[in-house]
Write a structure and sequence with these properties.
Strand 2 and strand 3 form a beta hairpin. Strands 1, 2, 3, 4 and 5 form a five-stranded antiparallel beta sheet that branches. The protein is α+β, with helices and mostly antiparallel strands and 354 residues long. Helix 6 packs across helix 9. The chain contains twelve helices and five strands.
Length: 354
Amino acid sequence: MEHNRENIPSGNQTYQDDEISLKELIEKGKALLTYFMGYKWVIVAAGLLGGGLGFGYAHFFNVVEYESKLTFAIEEKTVGGGSLLGLASQFGVDLGGGGGGLFTSDNLLLLFKSNRIIQGALLRPLLEVKEGNLYNHYLAIHYEKALKEEKISLLPVDLDRKKFSRGQDSLLKAISLNISEIVTIEKKDKKASFIDITVKDQSELFSLWLNKFLVEEATQLYIELKVGKMQRSVMILQNKVDSVQRVLDGTMRSAATGMDQSMGLVSNSPRVGTAKKQMEAEMLGTLFGELTKNLELTKFTLEREEPTIQIVDAPTLPLEKFGKGRVKFGVIGGFLLGFITLGWLFLRKILGEL
């Protein structure tokens, strides 16, 4: 019994052992720190090398892209006014309403990737980029080497599209094909009319403005096909109104002259021509009134016609960025290679003490 009690360590003894262990741990930590400090320049050099490698990787291999996202709604409506269409058709005038089938939700998914829409967006003048338009800006970003070697050149902003050379036209078509790959059109819900258009590119300004210009080009195409026809109808009606008004004015003057000449005559035969002129004037007056009414109704319909594309959410700066930047890659590379060097030194010290 006495012997067992002697083997049981006291509380003070346990505390002393823990204190010794802690002191030994601190001493070993100081020794390890001193050991690392002896290789501080090696560790610093490794960190700088890792930072340089990370920076170089980000510069040459990692691509940072900016994403712009625009949400719009399709308004598939037709202009009312059945009586208007009937009256106008009597005079060979078509008030439009065409072009709507092209702007259905399904067709728009392909329309935004068409050459007409993409090229129109690329060649639009833009003061926000120093190159003058998105086409030249895209060349400066993605074809920098070819530009320096003068294999290709920027286009004059005011150059007429019809005057493009064969080489310029081929390059524009090739770039349009590239652009179609970075443009994503998505209709999340088949029942809803909301559509998202997303553009990703290395240039934040290119991604932002291409998205906006694509929608504007599609809207302009709608106006040309539908509202443009109504505008031509207004011109046709206006010409008819002016023509009838000139004939009516001449007929009324002839009728007035005939009445003056037939006054005081006993015979009624001279008054027949005057009566015909008066009847013709009345018929022309009725026709003039109907044409004028149709013209005003057409102008009113034209004014209330709206584009089918309504913007719900438009992208704004700054855009969402994907991919790490060069500085961030440099910091990560520096820390990574630095820790690897510390691990190697620690392992080397442990193996040396064995």
